[in-house]
Design a protein that fits this description.
The chain has two domains: 1-36; 46-306, Rossmann fold (3-Layer(aba) Sandwich). Helix content is 49%, strand content 14%. It has eleven helices and seven strands. Helix 5 (168-184) runs antiparallel to helix 8 and helix 6 packs antiparallel against helix 7 (205-217).
Length: 307
Amino acid sequence: MMNVRNRARPMLRALFFASALAMTAAAGAAAAEPATAAAPFVSDRLSVEVVGQGSDVILIPGLASSREVWRATADRLKANHRVHLVQLSGFAGQAWTHGDGAFVQPEVAELARYIRQSGLVRPAVIGHSMGGLSGLMLAQQHPELVGRLMTVDSLPFYSALFGPTATAETARPFADQAAAQILGADATAYRAQQTAAAQGLSRDPAEQARIVDWSMASDRHAVAAAIRDVMTTDARPGLAAMTTPVTALYAADADGGAPAAVADAMWTREYSTLPGATLTRVDGSRHFIMADQPRRFAEAVDRFLAD
């Protein structure tokens, strides 16, 4: 019996050694294989272009706008930040497949899905106009996903522009009328409308031309659905419970835009229930602050990201 055991020991050692070699080789082969790439984000509501390296910043454009509204900002930030440029479907030549259905809430849900699927950890979010409203809704509904938020010339309730007593219900007939006008105008009339509107949105003629081009390239059903949602979505009831730090950048322009006193009163009133909100006025600017006052806008973004 002892002889059998003695003869078995060298065999067992050989088997153990061979097994160890096999395990080491398998581990080496596994290490040599590239890591499986994350599945690409696919959505019929939005697409995202990513540039740069560093802490994450998501940029959301506004109604009928292209992600190109953020290009100068992204080019400046990408040395130290990973910038996620959102393009909303239906705008600026992007396909739209949802007819006259809801726009804003499904887009907010897809932004949340993008953050989760991409593994982003509490990114900074900057949204212009409707993009700012989307950012507020995202932070209210998914506070764990947003590290900080900047709204750019964006109110929590757009229809407050009609007066302090406006509500989502009283705004609904006007929203339906605005949507009907968008859908009913012929191409010539629609371009004239957009050209006139652009003059009130930016002081810069080149930016005005871009705004008109983006509007004309947008799917009108998408624009109508979006304006209907924006005019009847009131994010003010959720402000008091928000814990996400918010900076609200807003424009004032004594020459063709909102007078400073009017803008101050509006933004102070509409953000009054948001704890710790930072309100920053940018003079000499209309709605597209990033185009009208690029240096001051860049400084405001840098302060926001540094806080």
